[in-house]
Each structure stands twice: as C-alpha cells, then as structure tokens.
Amino acid sequence: MEAEHIVHPIPPLYDENSRVLVLGSFPSIKSREAMFFYGHPQNRFWRLLALLCGEPEPKTVEEKKRLALSHGVAMWDSIHSCTIVGSSDSSVRDVVPNDLSVILENSRVEKIFCNGALSHRMYMKHIYPNTGIAAVKLPSTSPANAAFSLDRLAKCWKVIFE
Description:
CATH architecture: 3-Layer(aba) Sandwich
Helix content: 25-40%
Oligomer: single chain
CATH topology: Uracil-DNA Glycosylase, subunit E
C-alpha cells in the first residue's frame, strides 16, 4: 500500500449543547468509507460510549450521532489532512491540523479529550497554541491497543462525563 495525501472527509459532529469534544487523530480507511467516526467494527469507541452512557450500543450512523449529541459529546479529529499509508498512525506525515473554532464558537465545549497518543500529540503541537485549552490524553479505543480491555478503557474514559 502506498502513501497518499488525504483531506479529512468527515464533518465535525457537534451542536449548541455539546460540552465535551473527543478528538481522534485521522479517520481510518473504514471510517472514511462509512463517512463517520470509528467506523471499523473492531474499534471499541461506540461500545465504550454506550457503556458509559448506560445505553444500547448504536449500530447506524444516525444512532451514533444521537447517542453522542444527546450526552453532550462533540467529535472530530486533530488532523485536517496528511500523508498516510492506509490507516497507520505511525505513517502519518505532512500534517495540517483541523481548525476547531467552528465547534468552540458554536457549542458549550470547555473540555477536550484525545482518543490516543497521536491525536494528543497533534493537538498539543498544532491546535493548543490557538485554543489555550489543554487536552486530556485518553487510551486509544483502537483494536491495536490490545492492552486495554473495555472495562479498563471505561475506567479511564469516565472522566469525560465528570
């Protein structure tokens, strides 16, 4: 698989009642195909959010949007465009960050959480200087993060609702 330069194809998810922003790094191939966040069936994000909210796991994009927004969760990614091989975080280069002002100016977001190390590194390097809002790094919900069970993820991620 060759490296290709890709512009983020998924619009941010937020509304005027969003209180927290969860940032991934850049959408995987499966997420880009689904045109929505955490589209890979092995990614545990949606199971985790449902568990934390005490709701059934959403299956459709509409159910996922409803779950996030009804609990004040906005979503986007730290990276607007980059050169990437497939879905590999370690291959990311030539990063252009996302401009979060559209979310921050049109919601009640005061806390930002990053899903994994790359998202946090890109946020702190490229976006934090503009927002002044320090982001909290949370363990990745990716299946590549096998060291974290769903229960262990939940213990860390519950902070988004505190």
